[in-house]
Task: inverse folding
């Protein structure tokens, strides 16, 4: 049987297959990849998360919970140009429709190509003739191109976890054509939504004179590839089981005790400008303004672990959020009540499961998101007899599937306020009806 080689920017320690307590902050992707790697006796390759003054290409091989990992350290300059630079200051904002935050620096692009080549050179000795190679996300778009140049003929697939932007945005990227051409060295390209796949196809047919044929086959640059849609899901049964674990129940009880006489609204997001955190807070502020009779009956818990704090745009966002939350709490707090609780740290999966179950409303309002698994985890964690209500941005990939959520435009404070009012007053019959449909989709 063929081995599976997974290539990603970072390698997360794989959880144990029988892990039942939600230990650590391992995401749904890591759980799924670890299961696939065990089944196919595979290797997970990527960056160790460490830097070194000079790149050596030395591999560190480990066997963790039944999965073989292979990691390599990055040179300090590579980290700045490839990771902090091209990945997080160029591609991430551009692909999330934030052209105003996109940095175009030639050294960033050079570092990006250099690291992809170094990764390919380091991975090459591990590849066996029948291996299937699965490359993940925007950090590693040129990976197949570099492997092909080294003579690798194996099947190689690519999955983009974030949105693929509209054609008009892609062309603002210097050297956008070579980046897209590199994707045609993959046998299969996966996107989260049909909208993303269609945007990629639009670029290919409009900008470079390519063609789209039957079976989702795209032809351009003298090559062909298949571009298809594979929306990420979660192991819903496992997450529901974690919700009944002792730690999850303890957190659930604590949340109920701290929100006694009040309904809790929860948001869980990495601290990132794509998540719509400022817009969400302004929408909650509008709700407090428009509904004075409910002010003391509702609280918002916003969990937002800090990320990419070396990037200036993230530092600015953190400062703005601190000021905005201070303003709202200053205006609407009482002696015994603060409307917003704001936490900048990560929590275990089982702890989050308890929080989700205790929340009457899950508020998921990204300005642009590839999928968003928090929305699916919130649904999976609910009590079937007394479920909460999911409010979901139309710009999250999950909105294409979770149509029984209250779908809103996150740019509109009025829509957020109206959705909160509707969700908090929604009767048990409608809540159960909506949740039944949402849960069926998440389970499926």
Result:
């Amino acid at each position: 049987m063929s081995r599976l080689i997974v290539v990603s920017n970072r390698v997360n320690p794989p959880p144990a297959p029988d892990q039942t307590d939600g230990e650590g902050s391992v995401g749904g992707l890591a759980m799924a990849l670890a299961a696939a790697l065990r089944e196919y006796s595979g290797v997970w390759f990527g960056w160790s998360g460490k830097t070194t003054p000079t790149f050596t290409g030395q591999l560190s091989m480990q066997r963790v919970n039944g999965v073989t990992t292979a990691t390599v350290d990055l040179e300090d300059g590579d980290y700045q140009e490839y990771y902090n630079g091209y990945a997080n200051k160029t591609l991430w904002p551009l692909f999330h429709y934030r052209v105003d935050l996109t940095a175009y620096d030639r050294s960033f692009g050079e570092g990006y190509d250099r690291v992809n080549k170094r990764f390919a050179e380091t991975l090459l000795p591990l590849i066996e003739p029948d291996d299937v190679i699965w490359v993940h996300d925007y950090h590693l778009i040129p990976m197949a191109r570099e492997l092909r140049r080294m003579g690798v003929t194996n099947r190689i697939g690519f999955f983009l976890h974030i949105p693929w932007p509209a054609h008009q945005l892609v062309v603002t990227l210097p050297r956008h054509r070579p980046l897209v051409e590199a994707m045609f060295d993959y046998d299969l390209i996966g996107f989260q939504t049909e909208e993303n796949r269609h945007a990629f196809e639009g670029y290919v047919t409009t900008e470079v004179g390519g063609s789209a044929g039957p079976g989702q086959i795209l032809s351009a640059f003298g090559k062909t590839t298949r571009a298809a849609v594979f929306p990420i899901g979660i192991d819903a049964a496992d997450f529901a089981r974690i919700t009944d674990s002792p730690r999850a129940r303890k957190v659930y009880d604590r949340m109920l005790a701290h929100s006694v006489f009040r309904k809790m609204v929860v948001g869980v997001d990495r601290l990132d400008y794509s998540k719509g955190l400022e817009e969400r807070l302004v929408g909650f502020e509008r709700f407090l303004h428009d509904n004075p009779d409910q002010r003391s009956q509702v609280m918002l818990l916003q969990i937002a672990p800090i990320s990419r704090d070396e990037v200036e745009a993230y530092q600015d966002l953190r400062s703005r959020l601190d000021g905005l939350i201070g303003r709202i709490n200053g205006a609407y707090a009482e002696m015994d009540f603060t409307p917003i609780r704001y936490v900048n740290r990560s929590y275990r999966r089982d702890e989050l499961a308890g929080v989700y179950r205790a929340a009457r409303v899950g508020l998921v309002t990204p300005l642009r998101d590839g999928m968003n698994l928090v929305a699916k985890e919130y649904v999976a964690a609910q009590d079937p007899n007394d479920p909460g209500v999911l409010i979901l941005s139309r710009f999250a990939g999950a909105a294409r599937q979770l149509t029984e959520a209250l779908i809103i435009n996150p740019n509109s404070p009025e829509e957020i306020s109206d959705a909160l009012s509707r969700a908090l007053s929604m009767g048990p019959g409608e809540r159960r009806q909506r949740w039944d449909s949402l849960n069926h989709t998440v389970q499926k």
